[in-house]
Amino acid sequence: MSPVDRLARPLRNLRLSVTDRCNLRCAYCMPEPDYVWLPNEQILTFEELSRLVDRFLPLGVTRVRLTGGEPLLRRELPVLVKALAAKPLEDLALTTNGVLLAEHAEALRTAGLHRVTVSLDTLKADRFIALSKRDHLPRVLEGIAAARFPGQLKLDAVVIRGVNDDELEPLLEYAGQVGAELRFIEYMDVGGATHWNREHVVSRAEILTRLEARYGKIAPLGVPGPAPAERFQLPDGRAFGIVASTTAPFCRRCDRARVTADGHFLTCLYASNGLDLKTPLRSGATAAELEQLLAWTWKHRSDRGAEERAALAAQRGPLASAPVLRAAPHLEMHTRGG
Ligand code: SAM
Ligand code: SF4
Ligand code: SF4
After folding, report:
1. What CATH number was assigned to the domain covering residues 13-336?
2. How far is the CA of 5 from the centre of ligand 1 (A)?
3. Domains of the chain: which residue ranges?
């Protein structure tokens, strides 16, 4: 019983946020001086998360990505990874800022994690501090060096004009050195990006033009699928990706759902609210009842958040102001998991 939504999109990918806490303060995600955190007692336990994933499997989910906040801040994360790795999943991945990766990589690999994506926006120590308010670039680079998993290592870089858009080439070269595939992410006007401004967005088209000027003709690799990144190839064969969520959204192909650390089921990154799964989980709902709830929600999904934001054109600004986010922390990117 794999449901499709109102736009005939199946449900295949699940992004599970395991915490809303973070050890960085990236300018495009958490630029404010303080935040309202999810109460500890509302955070789903590993047993609850594992039960929930079991209910998503019959609906068609084959790929799970752990995220946050910073997922490696969640204590004993390899215990959850081990439980999820025992399930029939095609892909079990983790998105991390890399700060704690060196110390946890071996335990995560042993627990059965397939692959890791590390966010890396700059290779310059001063710029890293300016962007994230923490002096952790050396630890992130150590984490990347320690990231040996069966699946390919990916590096994600949010490109912001006047901030790090002079590092397209150095980041590509570095990714090649560490055997990773780099993905450039367009700066998005998501909840949390309270300083977002469309002049700061470096579009997919501009990224490609700049890289072509440096490397020569760039060719698309394959046809765009449900994955957010479109892949390209440099003349020397090196592959990289671009996630053009801001200027060329891929909502029509979107097969992903999100669950926040306190069990809110979101059918879009831009959704204004989610379905509370914690209450039925904790009040003894049966497996069949939970599956029905998930299937019903997916069948009624018509979200096209990024396309709707793109249609705002010149009127486009931050999705939500800091006071709105303080009153509704579920809108935050660090709560939704990106
Ligand atoms: N803390 C982990 C990390 O940074 O990799 C995982 C959670 S983070 C919210 C997931 C992804 O969202 C990161 O790759 C981050 O760069 C991306 N992200 C956050 N805010 C963004 C924004 N305004 N535009 C584009 N990507 C953003
Ligand atoms: Fe940066 Fe990820 Fe933390 Fe957001 S959640 S501040 S993107 S490290
Ligand atoms: Fe999917 Fe929503 Fe992102 Fe569009 S904006 S790709 S519907 S999560």
Report:
1. 3.20.20.70
2. 26
3. 13-336
Q: Tell how strand 63-67 and strand 264-266 pair up.
A: unpaired
Q: Is 337 in the pocket of ligand 1 (CB under 6 A)?
A: yes
- CA–CA distance, 18 with 1 (Å, rounded to integer): 27
Q: How far is the CA of 99 from the centre of ligand 2 (A)?
A: 11
Residue among 28, 66, 70, 243 whose CB has most ligand 2 atoms within 8 A, to mutate? 70
For ligand 3, atom 8: residue with the closest CA: 268
Question: How many Å lie between the centroid of ligand 3 and the Cα of residue 328?
Answer: 20
Query: Which has the closest alpha carbon to 197: 70, 319, 293?
Result: 319
Q: What is the pLDDT of residue 6?
A: 98
Q: How far apart are CA 247 and CA 309, in angstroms?
A: 10
Pocket test for ligand 1, best of 333, 334, 335, 336 (most atoms within 8 A of CB): 333
Q: H or E stretch including 53?
A: helix 46-56
Q: Is the C-alpha dihedral spanning 201, 203, 208, 209 positive or negative?
A: negative
For 150-206, what is each residue's pLDDT tens digit?
999 999 999 999 999 999 999 999 999 999 999 999 999 999 999 999 999 999 999
Distance CA(175)–CA(182), nearest Å, equals 6
**Alpha-carbon gap, residue 127 to 173, rounded angstroms:** 18
What's the rounded Cα separation, in Å, for the pair 21 and 39?
11
SS3 193: coil
Interatomic CA distance for residues 127 and 80, integer angstroms: 34
7-63, pLDDT tens digit by residue? Answer: 999 999 999 999 999 999 999 999 999 999 999 999 999 999 999 999 999 999 999
Q: Is residue 251 within 8 Å of residue 304, measured between CB atoms?
A: yes
The pLDDT value recorded for residue 224 is: 75
